[in-house]
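User: As part of a screening pipeline, I want to sanity-check one entry by hand. Below is the sequence and the SMILES for pyridoxal-5'-phosphate. Please return the complex as structure tokens so I can compare it with the automated output.
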Amino acid sequence: MRTLANFNAGPAMLPTAVLERVQAELSDYRGSGMSIMEMSHRGKEYEAINAQAEERFKRLLGAGAGYRVLFLQGGASLQFAMVPLNFLPPGGSADFLMTGAWAEKAYEEAAALGQARAAASTAADQYRRVPRPDEIALGPEPAYVHITSNETIQGIQWHSFPDVGGRPFVADMSSDILSRPIDAGKFALIYAGAQKNLGPAGVTAVLLREEWLARANKNVPTMLRYATHVKNNSLYNTPPSFGVYMLNLVLEWIETTGGLEAMAERNRRKAQLLYTAIDQSGGFYRGHALPESRSLMNVTFRLPSEALEKKFVSEAQAAGMVGLAGHRSVGGIRASIYNAVPPEACQTLAEFMNDFARHNG
Ligand SMILES: Cc1ncc(COP(=O)(O)O)c(C=O)c1O
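Assistant: Here is the complex for your manual check:
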């Protein structure tokens, strides 16, 4: 029985059913006499897992035949560099939609390698919302447009994606991948570190429009070329096999619990519980995000003082709720409520918030 309510931002909670399955299969994978961790990545068992995970990821995202799925290493942070290394041509420029700490990191990596442009930014608004369509000024011919679908630190999320007029669209979906249905066909490349919604840390999932590869730069080190991994089905070198195995089980869990529509509905209900507690606190809790940009994955808020925030975190912990301290760069409270976090945990937190405000307001 797991009774702790885990609101960690990443690595984050994994579905209990998946952990139990992993435990049952740990030392003897389906009668093979070996753990997945002990097997060759060139053997039939692992190749089947790799293929199944690719297929499931594509199916869940609704990506068509022109897309490839890759399981890489280096985290989303390496994707910040790999995307411009491969797709920012000499003399070219890429457009960035600046929404928070992670968009800034992606921008900085591209700017270190070539030309990067902020096509919109809500920095002046402390990244409390995503830009409105009329605030986005795309360049005439950027090599690509980069978006961060959910800002994990600020707790803001794009609820609909802007129209980029056919320019290649690249998304960092690390903190809301597979939390809701999306139109994958809009994107040339999607990447996500696994450790929030997909599995354990150590795997980075990439969805790539294969046609775009034809335009990729050629003078890129082998391991950093998407083409290398496409050609070798993510098996160019030793992959993070245990992580991909677990990711495959998480994808299966999403499919068997009703897919992305069901996940989105469940995530909406979970977030609603916490935002209602904020809105009905008479100003005791102040949400960081403006209502129209509130993240359904990371709920960020402040209390009247830092002392009360500390007290909130420690009393919540004593009541069985962990991971609630906000990111060190913004402070306050952050509840990360990714797919695997059950609605009951959000209900418990909402009730705790109500009680805490009553006793400390
Ligand atoms: C939106 C977003 N992008 C990128 C990253 C960096 O990911 P990684 O630690 O896998 O490099 C994170 C990590 O929290 C994130 O939330």
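Points to compare against the pipeline: The first strand starts at residue 5 and ends at 6. The chain has a mean pLDDT of 97.
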